[in-house]
Specification:
By secondary structure, this protein is an all-alpha fold. Helices cover 85% and strands 0% of the residues. The two termini are 45 Å apart.
Length: 151
């Protein structure tokens, strides 16, 4: 079964929609990757902040404040690690969605190309039939058939 040019037009429109979906998914994935990296950078910076040196001979109040500070920073680090883990899960899901959308787009591109090839073959065959018919008519006109005896 060959496809008409109208059918190809519909497939091309669908291809454009799927192409935009792939581009959109790529953008979301990129944004999510930046978010994951931002969480990792925050965690690294917070760990460095919590490991700052204390004075050589701190008094009890300084030690108490330092312990509270470190505990507070650790809570923020833990929260950032949780957020980073959730962001990584979301990034993996977006990656899978992108792969699926890209596959659908590639399949559609293949179908469109096959349909274009089939339509082109059908047009070539029709053109060849027309050429053969014209050549046959031309030959018949140039070589009239002799009437047979008995007719």
């Amino acid at each position: 079964m060959t496809m008409t040019t109208a059918g190809l037009s519909v497939l091309e429109t669908l291809r454009q929609i799927r192409e935009r979906a792939v581009e959109e998914a790529t953008g979301k994935l990129s944004q999510q990757a930046r978010l994951c990296q931002r969480y990792l950078n925050n965690i690294t910076a917070l760990k460095a902040l919590s490991e700052c040196d204390t004075p050589a001979e701190p008094d009890a109040a300084q030690l108490h404040n330092r312990a509270r500070f470190r505990a507070g920073i650790q809570r923020v680090i833990d929260w950032q690690q949780q957020q980073q883990a959730l962001a990584a899960i979301e990034q993996d899901e977006l990656q899978q969605q992108l792969k699926q959308q890209a596959c659908r787009e590639m399949i559609l591109n293949t179908v469109i190309q096959q349909q274009k090839d089939a339509l082109e073959r059908a047009l070539r065959q029709q053109a060849q039939k027309n050429t053969d018919a014209m050549a046959s008519q031309s030959w018949l006109l140039a070589h009239p058939v002799r009437q047979r005896a008995g007719r």
